[in-house]
Amino acid sequence: MSTPILELRKATKKYAGVPAIEDVDFTLMKGEVHALVGENGAGKSTLTKVMAGVVNLTSGQMLVDGREAMPRTPNEARDLGVAMVFQENSLVPTMTVAQNLFLGQEKFFNRLRGIYIAAQQFLQSLNFDVAPTATVSLLGAAKKQMVEIARAVLHNAKVIIFDEPTASLTPEEKKYFFDLVRDLKKRGVSVIFISHALEEALLIADRITVLRDGKHVVTDDASKFDRARIVQAMVGRDLSQTLYGQRKTTIRPAGKRVLSVQNLRMASMVKNNSLSVFAGQITGVFGLVGAGRTETFKVVSGVIKRDFFHGGEVLLHDKPVRYRVPAPAVRDGIAYITEDRKVEGFFETMSIARNIYIGQLAKLRRKRGLISGKAASAVGALWTKALNIRAISPDVKAVELSGGNQQKMVIAKSLVQEPELLIFDEPTRGVDVGAIAEIHRLINDLADQGKAVVVISSYLPEIMSLSDRILVSRQGKVVEEYSALEATEEKIMYAAIH
Amino acid sequence: MSSARLSQQTIVFGIFIVLFLVFSLLLPGFFSASNIVALLQNVAILGILGLGMAIVVIGRGIDISMIAALAVPPGLVLQMVNDGYPVSVSVAAALALVIVFGLVNGWLIAYAEVPSLFTTLASGLFLAGLGQVAFFKLDLVPWPPQLDAIAGFGRGSIVGIPMPVVMFGLTILVCAFLLRYTRFGTYLYATGDNPLGARTIGIPTRPLILRQYVFAALIAAFAGMVMAASIGTMQTRIYNSTMIYDVILVVVLGGIGLSGGRGGVLNAVTGTLLIGTLLNGMTILDMSYSAQNLIKGVILLIAILIDSVLNPRNEETAQQGDI
């Protein structure tokens, strides 16, 4: 066996004494595509950040080409030939493609024409269809990724790490991305990619490593894995059947119409969108990124800034409403549970109880000027128990909770407001598998209690297993509607793409 | 996180104690009843301002215009009474000026979404200029005898404690109550912690921000009245001094994170005591004004550095969930 191009031995990284990864061994061969899978919090990001010099090991060794080398900064990692393409773009949006490619390598006299010609030749040699003079902010997600990859190749990267590379890509773009990875492989570049999409890992990887709770579980050739084996290795138990495997055999009948959206228009994201939501059932809204689902429901709940609204009508219980801020929408019984809980979900410096109590304060009809610590702990204890929110102590700050528990707290914060219409936007994003099952059960219970529930999700199995009614959104409007009984994954995907 | 913040406050308090002891031992005349009283009296105005600033900073803003609000409305009261207007009319006019000023600040920041730093930088300049151009005939406006009836809250003492210090204590109580026991306080922390989150859950964040700038302006004007009563004049050019840096120093040094949602009244009080001791000591040492500014500048830089290390609000915090 030849020397691995990159190797980690007994890699351990602790945050405040808590190990994010512990004694992980990892090898990467030349020209290999290596998929890294695991639940959220399994340590995938930390492991790759160590290799890219973003995070430094607490203990352990890293070897590049058989020689010990420990990059302390992303720059040092780049000199070693390790480049990372982040989930969030690390390009400078206001600069052109060429400027981004050569960023940090400019000569003292930075002649624009020179770098445009160099960039043009380089992009052509990679067969990338991107104009070097285009401004990055105007490019689509796939093209931005191309620029990132081109930059990595330009820096003579021997190892390129991708963190969730396909999350924001359309199916065609994904296909293109896979071709790119195969091309990189042919050039002798090794690729590590983190993915939640197991099918992708199985399809494209040579080898797959599974992490769980910061520990290495198994590494094997991709051909020796199937979906069930990966999931089992990820969770350590056979959950894949109970979680998404079952198809609905009965659906809840539609109750009263709670929400009706007619010809809603908003900026370039929502185009004449019309839909209805009924009480006592779950309406699943599926669509690819950019389909305008989140934006539509943010208009409904007043979360979106007023300036983007261009027209159309929103009817709540058959009465026209137009919320400019979320507060009146909350009072009228609408709860929007965000897809991005870190940005607009919870208060990180506060305890669970205080977070939930603020939800209650914001809804109280008779506004009270004074707050009550007793009421806060009571409501906190009640919902912590009801939703099985697990924390070391009740006083622990929200930021210290795991993703699943944070999400449950964010949901509790809205449930305490006793809403009639609940909009869950990607309710299980960044949530561990155990908590996903609990959150799904909770959403089902809410529909059984007669609430009108909307679930927005990009994950087809989630939509299929939860919804009674499925709306498919594409390019700013709902294009298709299915009863859960007649829907198939193929039908839904077909409507979402074409 | 909580232990880190606790320790910053404890550290600052510890530094205050050490500094106080060192000054007491080394500086002749520092540890005398009259000097301690003078120290507290000097620091009282700063402390009141610091509390107002604390409220704004906890709500993730900053109010650079506080010194203008300290100088101009009280100066207006004094000037109008000197010019022969009735006391009630003068006070009402100044009060209206303060509230309108706070509302304009708040409206610009909350509704027009101009960053608070730039808004208050400009509005403070405007208010100070307005005072110079339209209201004041001289830089020093004397305290008119007609106002002696209400001079009590800045002049004299209760059981040996000078009135400005008593007023500082009163402001501490009011602010502590507001922050700890009212809905306003809870919402303020929530909005400072996560403005978008607060908005989404149904907190009316814009009126809240509006109120916090009105409150800061009122506190500043109150501090101005206390100051004018205790000195007997209003130095209207105080706007041009470095006082606003001292106020920010009090807040940051005390451990109220500039990123919002953190800290409380105790932090502001600790910061005030430390700055008060430092200023007093430097004055006794007969340091030049410039040297004092240099030292304060260094301390402010260090405090901001420590603040951004202890209370990071960036990718690091955001990504703690997905290691």
TrEMBL record, chain A:
Spans traversing the lipid bilayer: none
PROSITE patterns linked to this entry: ABC_TRANSPORTER_1, ABC_TRANSPORTER_2
A Pfam family hit: ABC_tran
Keywords on record: ATP-binding, Nucleotide-binding, Repeat, Sugar transport, Transport
Domain ABC transporter as annotated: residue spans: 6-238, 251-497
A GO molecular-function descriptor: ATP binding
InterPro entries referenced in this protein's UniProt entry, alphabetically: AAA+_ATPase, ABC_carbohydrate_import_ATPase, ABC_transporter-like_ATP-bd, ABC_transporter-like_CS, P-loop_NTPase
Record-stated family: Belongs to the ABC transporter superfamily.
Protein name: Sugar ABC transporter ATP-binding protein
Automatic annotation (TrEMBL), chain B:
GO cellular component: plasma membrane
Pfam families, sorted: BPD_transp_2
Transmembrane segments: 12-31, 37-57, 87-110, 117-138, 158-179, 213-232, 238-258, 265-285, 291-310
Lineage start: Bacteria, Pseudomonadati, Pseudomonadota, Alphaproteobacteria, Hyphomicrobiales
Location(s), subcellular: Cell membrane
Highest taxon, organism lineage: Bacteria
Keywords: Cell inner membrane, Cell membrane, Membrane, Transmembrane, Transmembrane helix, Transport
GO molecular function per UniProt: transmembrane transporter activity
UniProt protein name: ABC transporter permease
Membrane association type: Multi-pass membrane protein
